[in-house]
Amino acid sequence: MTPDQIFAFVVALMSAQPAEEAFPGLASGGHDPRYPVTLAPCLRPLDPWEIEGRTIVCGRVDVPADHAAPEGRRIALGFAILRARSLSPAPDPLVFLQGGPGADVVSQMQTWAVAFADWRQRRDVIVFDQRGNGVSDALTACRGATSGHFAEIAGAPPATGAQPVSPDALLVECRAEIADRGEEIALINTAQNAGDVAALVSALGFAQGWNLYGGSYGTKLGLEVMRQDPPGLRAAILDGVAPPMVRLYDELAGPPDEAAAAIFDQCAGDPACAAAYPDLEARFNALMEKLAAAPIPGARGRPPATPELVATLIKARNKPGVLTGVTAWLPKMIVELEAGETATLDAIIDDEIPPPAPTAAEVVAAAPIGLTEDQKALAEAILHMAEQQKASTAAMRAALVRLGEDASLLATPEDLPEAFERAMLRAAQRMTRDETLALLDGYAALRVGPQRRGALLDFVAAHFAGDLRLRLSRLVQAMTPADVTQTFARLERDARPYEAELLFGFHLMVYACQEDLPWNGPETAKAFQQTLRIPVMGAGADAQLESLYGQCAALFEPAPRPGFHAPVRSSVPTLLLNGLMDVQTSWKWGALAAETLDHATNLAFPETGHGTLLYHACSRDIGVAFIENPQAPVEAGCIDDLAVKWVLPDGTRSAGSPWPVRHR
C-alpha cells in the first residue's frame, strides 16, 4: 500500500461505521426469516488491514438442530464475511468449508484472510464454524469437564498431591456432560452440516448465486452439499479431496504411502534422475529393512538414521513452510545412506538443506548479465532496501493489529475488563503455585453457568483476600452490563486456544466414530496394509486404528446413514486440487471423486502437501480463474514450473520433468 492509502486506512480504522452500511440487511436480522442473523463482535486478532463493520462483519445464524425438524431446537452458527476489495465486486461469494472435522475458522481470521486474499479481490469470502466446533459448539460444549482441569489442559502439572488426569479421561467426562444435557450428538454429521451451508448462504442474502471451496474434510462436506443440490450453487473447488466412498480409516496408511511412491515415480520420469538413481523405489525399501536391523549412529547429538526418522522427514513435507524443497535432495540422501553416509541427512536435520535464501551480494553475483561495479553496487543497495521494507512492513502489520484491537475495546474512561484482567495477573505472580492453579481452574469455571456480575464477585471472593479482593470487587461493581459481557468474552477468548487443542480430537471422533468407522473395519485395514508400495510409510497405522476404535467404543454409538458413502453425482462445475506430498488425503482420491462429476477438472501439484492454496500462487491463480469462469477450460501450465529439479550426485540439478496427472 502507498503511504496515502495507509493514512486513509488508519483514519478509517478510528472512525466508527455501522455494519449495516457495508453489509445491508444483516443488522436487521438477515435475508431469510427462517434463519435469523445476529451480528456480534469479531474474535481478535484480525488481519491488520481489516476494519470491523467495513471490510469484515461477524455474527451468528440461527438454524435448526435437525433440518428435518425445522420447528424443533435451534442452534447458532458463528460466521464472518470478508468483504470483496473491488469497488465492482462479483455478486456470488466464495463459501469456505473448513477441514478437520473439528477445526474452527472464525477465531483464525488472520490466517484465512491471507489465504483467500486472491479470491477476495473480486468476491466476498464467507467462513463459518461448523456445528459442534469453535463458536458453534452448542451441541458439544463441555466446559464443566474441562474447567476443573483447565490448568493441566494449559500445560501445567497438577497441584501438589493431585492425581494427573489423562486426555482420554477428560474426553469421557466431556461426553458424559453432553449426555447429561440431553444433547443428540448424532445430529452432528455431514448431512446436517450441508443443510447448514444452504441455510447460511440464504440467511446472508446470497441464495441466488454462490461458490464453495472445501478443504480436507470440507471436500467431503462440499460433495454432500453438491449431492443435496441447494439453489444457487454455481461452482465448487475441492482441495485435498476425501470422497465419501473412500474407506478413510482402512486406508489410513494410503496417503503417506502414495506421497512416498510419488517421489520415486517423479524421479523415474526425469531422465537425469532415473539415470543417476536407478531402481530407487526397490533400493529404498531394501534400505529401510537394513536400517531397521542396524541404524546408522547419529553424529554430534543428531538422532540415528532409522526407518522412522526417514519416514518422518517424508511426511513432514505435508505442511507449508516445513522442509520446503527438500524432495529434490531425497534420492541423493537415500544413496548416501546405502553407503552408510549421512551428509545429506545431517544437513537436512541441521536446516542447511534446502539452502538459505541467497544474500543480496550473491543474487547480484549470480546475475546472468554482465554488470559494471557501479551497477552491482546499485543493485545490492536496492535489494537491501527491499529487505528493510519487508521488516518495516512486518512491524507496521503488528502495530495495525494492536491498533485494531484497541479500537475495538468498549469506549469507557477506564477499560474495566482489561483492568480486572491485569489486576488478576499481577496477583497471580505473588501466589503460590497451587494457588495459581486453583485460580486458573476457577477462572475457567466462570464459563459454566450464568454470565452475570454476581458470578464474578463470587470468583473474587473465593480466590482473593484483603485490599486486592476489595479492589477487584469495586472494579466488578463499577462495570456496566456491557463491561460484564466483555469480561466473559475475554475469558472465552483466552480459554479457547487451550481447550481447542484437547477437543479437536473429540470433534474429529464425533464424525469418525458415527459416520466413517462403521464403513471401515480392522480386518479390511490389515488387508489394505498388504498393498502398500512403501511399507515403512504404514508403520504405526495399526496402533492408531486400535486406539481410535477403542475411543469410539467408549464414547459414541455408530450412526451410519444409507447412501452417505455412495459416489456423488453432480453437474456443478468442479475443480479438484491434489498435492503429491499430501499424507492426509491421497493425491489419487481427486480422480475417484471426478469419475461421477459431469464437469470436473482434476489436477495434481508437485511439491505440494495438504491444502494446495497454502503452498504457491499456481493453485491459487488456477482457482481464482476457475471461479471467475467455471465453464472455461482450465489453464494449468504453471504446474509444469513446479516440477522437481533433482539434485544429482555431483551437486548439479536435473532439468525437471512435468508431472502428467491432469484431466477434465
Please provide a written account of the structure:
With 664 residues, this protein is an alpha/beta fold. Among the domains are: 277-349, no CATH class; 361-408; 416-479. Helices cover 46% and strands 9% of the residues. It contains 26 helices and ten strands. The chain has helices at residues 3-13, 19-22, 109-115, 117-120, 143-147, 150-153, 167-180, 190-203, 217-228, 254-268, 271-276, 280-293, 307-316, 330-338, 343-349, 360-365, 373-408, 416-428, 433-445, 453-463, 466-478, 481-516, 522-529, 541-555, 589-594, 617-628; strands spanning 37-40, 56-64, 74-82, 94-97, 125-128, 210-215, 233-239, 574-579, 600-605, 662-663. A ten-stranded mixed sheet has the order 1-2-3-5-4-6-7-8-9-10, sandwiched between helices. Helix 8 packs across helix 9 and helix 22 packs across helix 24 (541-555). The longest helix is centred in the middle third of the chain and has 36 residues, at 373-408. The model is unreliable at 7-11 and 409-413 (pLDDT under 50).
Describe the protein's topology.
Blueprint: H1 3-13, H2 19-22, E1 37-40, E2 56-64, E3 74-82, E4 94-97, H3 109-115, H4 117-120, E5 125-128, H5 143-147, H6 150-153, H7 167-180, H8 190-203, E6 210-215, H9 217-228, E7 233-239, H10 254-268, H11 271-276, H12 280-293, H13 307-316, H14 330-338, H15 343-349, H16 360-365, H17 373-408, H18 416-428, H19 433-445, H20 453-463, H21 466-478, H22 481-516, H23 522-529, H24 541-555, E8 574-579, H25 589-594, E9 600-605, H26 617-628, E10 662-663
Parallel strand pairs: 4-5, 4-6, 6-7, 7-8, 8-9
Antiparallel strand pairs: 1-2, 2-3, 3-5, 9-10
Helix pairs in contact: 8-9, 12-14, 18-21, 18-22, 20-21, 22-24
